[in-house]
Amino acid sequence: MKKIKNYIDGNVQANSVNFLSVDDPSTGEVISEVVLSSIEDFKNTVDSSEKAFLDWSQVTPLKRSRILSKFKEIIESNVDELAKLVSIEHGKTFDDAKGSVIRGLEVVEFSCGIPHLLKGEFSQNVGTNIDSWSIRQPLGITAGITPFNFPAMVPMWMFPISIACGNSFILKPSEKDPSCSLKLAELFSDAGLPDGVFNVINGDKDVVNMILDEKRISSISFVGSTNVAKYIYERSATNGKRVQSLGGAKNHLVVMPDANLDQAVDGIIGAAYGSAGERCMAVSVAVAVGDIADDLVSEISKKAEILKVSPWTNPESEMGPVISKEHKEKIENYISIGEKEGANLVLDGRGIKIQGYEKGFFIGPTLFDNVSKDMEIYKEEIFGPVLSVVRVKTYEEALSLVNDHKYGNGTSIYTSDGEISRHFTSSCNIGMVGINVPIPVPMAFHSFGGWKQSLFGDHAMHGIEGVRFYTKLKTVTSRWPKSIQSGPEFKMPTN
Fold first, then answer.
1. DSSP output for 312-363
2. Residue 428 a catalytic site member
3. Domains along the chain with CATH numbers
4. Residues 165, 180, 280, 428: which is the catalytic one?
């Protein structure tokens, strides 16, 4: 059985003898074991990161940039291998996994511009013969705790920017699919990154709590469910850390009567069922406005029921399994709840069986119609291939649904009306908005983050927000005195 350990100080290692099973979601079989790191493992990780930071923070931004550029080249040469690691342990299709690696790579590309991004501001003569300027300096040891659904992309939202800014970084990946993170660390070392600047430690909640409580760690970045995000935020803040903690979502896609129906349906199908719905930006609620509802539901149903659900090894696969047996049961329970609540179950993904993969964690596309806002399947994040259609009469009702929901991660609207789209963009209380775009995930040079219960902390991820999060601002005021001093002053200095 393959043993997955930690990557500490440039070496694969672990002192702990306790391991946790890693499953292949397509077969339901145990394919490896990942270490549950001990206190000693954790101490070694932090000691390594602390030592590495002292030297790395003194390396010029330009030299850091050159290592990032080499890392980018190495990732480009290993995209297929990284995507395969994602598909094996997560179950998503190979093309989807490959796309997620490339979206992570874009943040590495962005980080290569760090000399420009770290530039401060300068003002001459803010007072008589006094100049003032600002500089951005690294925080120290930073840490990231990442989810199972994007084992390549989400870590790369964090560590490239942090490391480019001069920090050391400790990554705690999901124990469900840890292999890709270790491979990324090895490739970064191949690019010339000094040992200890990027360490990977595996484990469960015990390791997470060690990270949250460790005084030498300056910041925490997290992506996951809202309950955990809030816990991460509160415990980290109590310990004086800077925190960006991204939580859950219930993303609404509003379809206006004047929308291009084919485009809207295609957008919904990919956004609701791609990656088996295990995306924080997945569309889980379609809001049908006016008389488009019947046609919308009919067309979604026709296309969803013919989706190819199969393992990632099938090149024709459009949707793979969900991550685990427990998560499959949780999703199926939500489907049962929806039935009991009175929603119309148009497509039922339960009970799907694939020849040769009967023990895999597969759920087919599921579609509910006539869902109301008081139903649990509407209120809660299901995180699976379950789409709810809510019917409303007016645009105003649709906007209220979007704004009244506790989550505020992403939303989209399909319409041919520029006035409506402009009003929706400015009036919805959501962090990321799409106009005729189903999944409005910002590019690396913009920033990713929701509102309301979808983000705890002041900073979104990557882009300029990432640079600001991983640096401290320092302002310097300077005067070179004349040889003759005028004596002490006791009043507030002014210009």
1. TTSTT-SB---S-HHHHHHHHHHHHHHHHHT-EEEE--TT---TT-TTS---
2. no
3. 2-247+454-476 (3.40.605.10), 251-435 (3.40.309.10)
4. 280
